[in-house]
UniProtKB/TrEMBL annotation:
Keywords: Cell membrane, Leucine-rich repeat, Membrane, Repeat, Signal, Transmembrane, Transmembrane helix. This is Leucine-rich repeat-containing N-terminal plant-type domain-containing protein. The lineage of its organism: Eukaryota, Viridiplantae, Streptophyta, Embryophyta, Tracheophyta. Residues 1-24 form the signal peptide. It is a single-pass membrane protein. It comes from Aquilegia coerulea. The chain crosses the membrane at residues 661-685. The keyword tRNA-binding does not apply. InterPro entries: Leu-rich_rpt, Leu-rich_rpt_typical-subtyp, LRR-RLK, LRR_dom_sf, LRR_N_plant-typ. Belongs to the RLP family.
Amino acid sequence: MDIRQFSVMFMLLLFCFQAHVLESQNQVCNSDDIGALRDFQKGLNSGIESWATADCCSWVGIICKSSLPLGLVSSTRVVGLELGSRNLTGSLSESFVGLNQLRYLNLSHNFLSGDLPRYLFILQNLEVLDLSDNHFSGLFPDSINLPSIQFLDLSQNYLYGTINPSMCNQSTNIQVLNLSMNYFSGNISGFGKCASLNFLMLDSNMINGSLPNDIFWLQNLRQLHIQNNRISGLLSDGLGNLSKLVQVDLSLNRFSGNLPDVFTSLSNLESFSAHSNNFIGRLPFSLSNSSTIETLHLRNNSLSGPIDLNFTLMVRLSSLILSSNKFHGPIPPSITFCRNLKTLNLARNPLGGQVPESFKNLESLSVLSLSNTSLHNISGALGVLQQCRNLRTLILTLNFHGEEIPTYPALQFRSLEALMIPYCGLTGVIPQWLSNCSKLQLLDLSWNYLGGSIPDGFSALESLFYIDLSNNSLSGDIPKSLTKLRSLSGDFNRLRNPSLDIPLFKGTNQYNKLRSFPPTLDLSYNKLSGKIWPDFGKLRNLHVLGLQHNQLSGLIPEEMSSMKSLEVLDLSHNNLSGTIPPSFTSLSFLSRFSVAFNHLYGRIPSGGQFLTFNCSSFEGNNGGGLFGCHRTAKEIPADFPGDVPSFNAEPRKHTREIVDFPFGIGVVAGFLLAVFICYMSGLLLPKNKKRSRRTLGFILL
Ligand SMILES: *[C@@H]1O[C@H](CO)[C@@H](O)[C@H](O)[C@H]1NC(C)=O
Ligand SMILES: *[C@@H]1O[C@H](CO)[C@@H](O)[C@H](O)[C@H]1NC(C)=O
Ligand SMILES: *[C@@H]1O[C@H](CO)[C@@H](O)[C@H](O)[C@H]1NC(C)=O
Ligand SMILES: *[C@@H]1O[C@H](CO)[C@@H](O)[C@H](O)[C@H]1NC(C)=O
Ligand SMILES: *[C@@H]1O[C@H](CO)[C@@H](O)[C@H](O)[C@H]1NC(C)=O
Ligand SMILES: *[C@@H]1O[C@H](CO)[C@@H](O)[C@H](O)[C@H]1NC(C)=O
Ligand SMILES: *[C@@H]1O[C@H](CO)[C@@H](O)[C@H](O)[C@H]1NC(C)=O
Ligand SMILES: *[C@@H]1O[C@H](CO)[C@@H](O)[C@H](O)[C@H]1NC(C)=O
Ligand SMILES: *[C@@H]1O[C@H](CO)[C@@H](O)[C@H](O)[C@H]1NC(C)=O
Ligand SMILES: *[C@@H]1O[C@H](CO)[C@@H](O)[C@H](O)[C@H]1NC(C)=O
Ligand SMILES: *[C@@H]1O[C@H](CO)[C@@H](O)[C@H](O)[C@H]1NC(C)=O
Ligand SMILES: *[C@@H]1O[C@H](CO)[C@@H](O)[C@H](O)[C@H]1NC(C)=O
């Protein structure tokens, strides 16, 4: 039974209760019950509407049941309280001792606080108790005697202390136990008695110690969620005892040692996640026997050896995430037996070699990241991957060092929405075939050595809203066609397109979706010359425009003040002359602005966002100088709306030669993929090339 079936079960249960309500409409409720309910209401800060009449069975949220003992008067008792999501505040009084026929109590999604009343935990008939998403605090009840309980949900509260191991002495029928998202600590030994448990959710607490062996006695367990705790030690072979397991999530803990080679026994397993632990050793070969597994997520461990599973039987595998480990190559050609594979992330492993020819058969493949895997042969890679007709996201950051980007016109990625090949030191020119990728929305070719001019073809790409060509050697004019990009001129609503729902990291501790990246045109750190087209003013949907560190000349067009969405505008380090158009004060979202190191003169516009910019945004202008700047106060914080990486007003140009990426990374359990924007302190680059410190790179972790 999965969660859905469970929900159906409980809906049926509810339905039964509702039926009883009808049946008991003319019954007057028991006087003990009415007293207890009035006490309960007294503990709340606000009353509940309709809880005034004499017959409590007609009150909102009350479920009654009458029994007709043979030859006797009927008795009607309150058997359920359904008061979820009613914004109740206050605390629970101990009135529940009177409601001793209660079978169903749902107070979830309220603002109830205080300790959990002890008397709730001795209700002999209670089958369902849902107190999730409230503000209850205090310790886990020290004695629980709920012999009928099947479903207990205390998740999303402020409970702490150890989880009382003896709770299953009396509560032997419990099938669902959800204690997620609290502050429980200590170890979790003692669950062995809860033999009926189907779902055990202990994730997002502060549980530590090792995983006790009695967990592996729970032969009925279908879902085990203990992710995001501090559990350490080895993962025992006992896992193989739990043959009914469907979902296992151990991620974000401190497990060490090898993954147990027990997957042959787990014949129902669909999802196994153990990312962000300290697992070492090779992939357990028994995974090859898993014909049920759909998701295997082992990112961010220290697993090593080759990826040498026999993929022949793993026909249902749809998501394989092995990134940030120490696997060595080659990329196994037999992965193509996994015909349902949609997501493949092998990033940050020293694989080496090439993309296997057989990858052209991965018909379902939608997301592929091979970032930082020491790949070579970009021509071969693109030639093979263009045949994956459902490929939507391709991330190849940090590979192919110094190779030439292929330009043969036949390349075509029909489904591709995001293409990222930055930090590859690629030579050559920006290829014309990009304009055949008609679905392209995001393009990142930054930090390469691409020369020549920017081709005209981009304006044909109707969905393109994110272009990063920064840190290359592009020369010539900015093509006027860039001012015609439909998605940037505002009449394209990318949010309507659900296809880019790719979870990702952005900045530190933050996740986002690819499609929620700000519309961006970053051409900074190139050798572009000529003038800035007045038609840039048409890009009403553009949020970030980076043109700094080029050789642009001429005036700053007044028309740019109609770029109403602009948050970042950096024109620094060019040869621009004239004045700053006063109408720029109407750019009301502008939070970063720099025209430093040009030949501008005249008064700095005053008003609007211009009151917030630091003087460093205007310095170094030798065309007569800019005046009217007074603000030398502290720097504007880096996290401004949209949270795009900051544009450094003071560029730090210097030579780098180390491979070292100090970056902070957010921790979000359950996400299968991550695209990460990092501030890199440098990467392997020839010594003679000047680079800025500011960088923007996508790395799928
Ligand atoms: C409790 O009520 C909420 C809605 O208020 C509902 O979402 C939840 O599923 C209910 N819990 C149970 C166990 O039925
Ligand atoms: C609870 O509060 C929210 C917002 O404060 C409101 O939208 C919602 O209607 C309230 N629910 C009830 C049942 O009063
Ligand atoms: C457990 O609780 C969490 C948080 O309240 C919720 O997201 C999850 O669906 C619950 N799981 C079950 C099986 O009730
Ligand atoms: C539960 O059982 C264990 C072992 O059988 C025993 O040590 C413990 O005292 C019992 N707890 C309760 C509350 O009965
Ligand atoms: C678990 O955490 C508690 C405090 O939270 C600490 O006293 C205990 O030593 C820890 N146990 C282990 C095995 O780390
Ligand atoms: C759990 O903690 C208790 C005491 O806090 C200790 O006696 C027991 O050995 C621990 N169990 C495990 C598996 O660490
Ligand atoms: C497997 O489950 C059985 C029955 O619950 C138990 O006796 C045995 O110790 C378990 N094996 C492991 C390795 O935990
Ligand atoms: C990787 O795992 C470690 C724990 O092993 C964790 O501290 C770190 O935050 C994780 N990194 C990422 C990027 O998830
Ligand atoms: C895979 O399953 C077969 C038959 O069920 C078994 O003989 C073999 O040992 C298993 N392989 C591994 C690696 O567990
Ligand atoms: C992989 O498994 C299939 C089916 O179990 C078998 O026929 C094939 O020989 C295996 N391949 C290798 C390389 O072991
Ligand atoms: C690239 O991979 C190497 C080794 O696999 C690692 O040391 C380095 O930190 C990685 N760089 C990035 C940016 O992921
Ligand atoms: C690159 O890959 C293509 C296609 O897989 C292959 O034909 C070519 O020989 C490869 N080139 C090199 C230098 O390995």
